[in-house]
Amino acid sequence: MSFIIKSIRPFNPEITFNSGQCFRWEKQDNAWQGIAENNYAEIIGTYPNVYINCDEADYPFWKNYFDSSYDYEAASAVLIQDNKISQAVINNKGLILLRQPFFEVLISFIISANNNIPRIKSIINKISVKYGDKTNNGYAFPKPDVLAQLKEVDLSAQGCGYRSRYIVETSKIISKGYFYEKLITIPLENARNELCKFMGVGKKVADCILIYALGRKDAYPVDTWIRKVSLDLFGKEMTDDEIRKKAAERFGRDAALAQQYLFIAKREPL
DNA sequence: ATCCAGGAGCTTT
DNA sequence: AAAGCTCATGGA
Predict the structure, then answer these.
(1) Tens of pLDDT along A61-105?
(2) A203-212 and A102-111 helices, crossing angle to 10°
(3) Which residues make beta-bridge pairs with A25?
(4) How far is the CA of A116 from the C1' of C9 (A)?
């Protein structure tokens, strides 16, 4: 274990960590502390001069986590030309989309259904403390085989409510082995339908998993906030399927980033 | 008290 | 395919 401080890809920690795509980053004395898998890291500095303090052996993991190979400057330059998004791009410079561990995103967004962000964070923290591995710097997210062996009441006791059954059943499938890499390359509709086979995963949660775990930039999660903003965006009331279709036409391969900008702007208007 | 939260599953039209 | 009802929970 040798901790090092290295520069990491330019991004805005404040905006990215508060954008509702991750639930396990907390700020302590000017440093953002987070755990993914069994890895701990601290993020310091401000956009565009950002540094990471982590175990040297984990640095490749974190480089991938912070999506180092994707050109957000180029994507934002495209989106800023859309007059409905330009202000959000300006107000949220340095936003990126994280590439988090598949199982953690899968379970976290099952918990997110019909829920709010502070409570989602609270629940995830509780199940991590109770069922995750203890590390030197906090508790890891629970492993699939651990959650798979729980009873519904165990998770209900941590506030998961009616989602407890979904978490156990989904964890059983993952713990038996699941090749999620295929979801990165197959057509969006197919990938979404595959994920919807998991109990507790619908189209919205499926799109979140495709973006925040698998790095797909063409997905477009339609939640209550995006529903609200679509009226202004497209000029009429639409079903969720129509919203996804229109968004795909308008934003194409930048749909996920457009959605994230719109979500932030609508949820926390300046 | 009533409504809402990064919805989804199930049943009924 | 589309609409309606229900599912826990805590905060506003």
Answers:
(1) 999 999 999 999 999 999 999 999 999 999 999 999 999 999 999
(2) 150
(3) A34
(4) 10
CA distance A210 to A188: 9
pLDDT, residue A269, reads 61
Q: In whole angstroms, what is the distance from residue A207 CA to residue A193 CA?
A: 10
**Residue A92: CB less than 7 A from any atom in strand B:** no
Sign of the C-alpha dihedral computed for residues A127, A125, A42 and A95 taken in this order: positive
In terms of Cβ atoms closer than 10 Å to its own Cβ (0-12, 13-18, 19+), residue A93 is: middle
Lowest-pLDDT choice from A1-5, A36-40, A53-57, A62-66:
A1-5
Å from A254 (CA) to B8 (C1')? 26
pLDDT in tens, A157-198: 999 999 999 999 999 999 999 999 999 999 999 999 999 999
* Nearest alpha carbon to residue A3 among A49, A52, A66: A52
Q: How does residue A1 score in pLDDT terms, banded at 50, 70 and 90?
A: confident
| Cα diameter, chain A | 56
The sign of the dihedral angle between the CA atoms of A77, A49, A13, A207 is positive
Q: How far is the CA of A248 from the C1' of B11 (A)?
A: 32
A125: its two tokens: 């923290």
Q: Determine the straight-line distance between the first and last CA of chain A, rounded to whole angstroms.
A: 43
Q: Where are the beta strands (DSSP E) in A29-150?
A: 31-36, 39-46, 49-55, 134-135, 138-139
Q: By C-alpha distance, which of A235, A236, A171, A247 is closest to A203?
A: A247
Interacting residues of A87 by C-beta distance below 8 A, sequence separation 6+: A265
